Amino acid sequence: MDLNTLKQTAARRAVEDVEDGMVVGLGTGSTAAFAVSALAERVRLGLRVVGIPTSERTARQAEAEGIGLGTLAEYPRVDLTIDGADEVALGELALIKGLGGALLREKIVAAASERLIIIVDATKLVERLGSHGPLPVEVAPFGWQATARALERLGGQANLRAQEGQAFLTDGGHYILDCRFGPIARPAELEAAIDRIPGVVESGLFVGMASAVIVADEGGIEVLTPSAAP
Ligand SMILES: O=C(CO)[C@H](O)[C@H](O)COP(=O)(O)O
């Protein structure tokens, strides 16, 4: 089974949890896009939902596929958000998100949600966050070099994300520093330390936020729920 089929399988399973009348947070990324399409299929069959998009990209897709959208101003309480992740730590189900560049809006919508369901293929599961890739940190463009140095003092090698030769700009007009920390022993402590750095807008560490993680692999689907932090 290819990766896209696994992503789609996890997405379809998550969308089964959406009930009529719900306000649904719509994640960003290739896996979340499958969830948007699966939700749109149900909307075409008569399901009534309001979608809260976590990026301009997701808003465009949802609108094109016929999902009615709202804002957190209109719907401050979100029933369920379905989103992807870059890494999921087994046990606590802490996450790294943001390789798709939408981590700030994703975290705001996740924090407003009763439930956050994360959908991944099994390649995203790790013993420790940071084992596979960098931790994205969204920062203010002003003085980003000083912010990068402060992140490096915490042990992460910070690289400014670029696209087509320019600094990548998030939907909020910020930069992203992709920080290589290696395996992260205490994600909650690191998240708090990063948040204290002036210039940091948000980090891609999502600790204690996931209600469940739906994992698709060759053998089928597994639904993980968080256990207490070690
Ligand atoms: O955090 C994200 C975007 O900011 C995505 O959820 C994350 O990057 C996973 O993306 P994909 O499903 O394409 O692997």
What labels describe this entry?
single chain; 230 residues; alpha/beta; Rossmann fold; Alpha-Beta Plaits; 2 domains; six-stranded mixed β-sheet; four-stranded mixed β-sheet; 6 helices; globular; binds ribulose-5-phosphate
Q: At the third CATH level, what is the topology name of the largest domain? A: Rossmann fold
| CATH architectural designation of the largest domain | 3-Layer(aba) Sandwich
Taken in chain order, the helices and strands follow as HEHEHEEEHEEEHEEEEHEEEE
User: Any low-confidence stretches, pLDDT <50, length ≥5?
Assistant: none
Tally of domains: 2
**Number of distinct helices:** 6
Overall pLDDT: 97
CATH class of the largest domain: Alpha Beta
**Percent of sequence in beta strands:** 25-35%
Distance between the termini: 34 Å
With strands numbered from the N-terminus, the spatial order across the biggest sheet is 2-1-3-6-15-16
Structural class: alpha/beta
What is the number of E strands?
Answer: 16
| Computed CA radius of gyration, to the nearest angstrom | 17 Å
Helix content: 25-40%
**Largest sheet geometry:** 6 strands, mixed
Attached small molecules: ribulose-5-phosphate
- Outline: globular
Structure write-up:
Helices cover 29% and strands 29% of the residues. The radius of gyration is 17 Å and the shape is globular. The strands form 4 sheets. The protein has a 6-stranded mixed sheet, with helices on both faces. It has a 4-stranded mixed sheet with strand order 7-4-5-14, covered by helices on one side. It has a 4-stranded antiparallel sheet with strand order 9-12-8-13. The protein folds into 2 domains: 136 residues, Rossmann fold, CATH 3.40.50; 65 residues, Alpha-Beta Plaits (2-Layer Sandwich). It has 6 helices and 16 strands. A hairpin with a 2-residue loop joins strand 15 and strand 16. The protein has 230 residues and is an alpha/beta fold. Ribulose-5-phosphate (5RP) binds next to helix 2 and helix 4. Ribulose-5-phosphate binds next to helix 2 and helix 4.
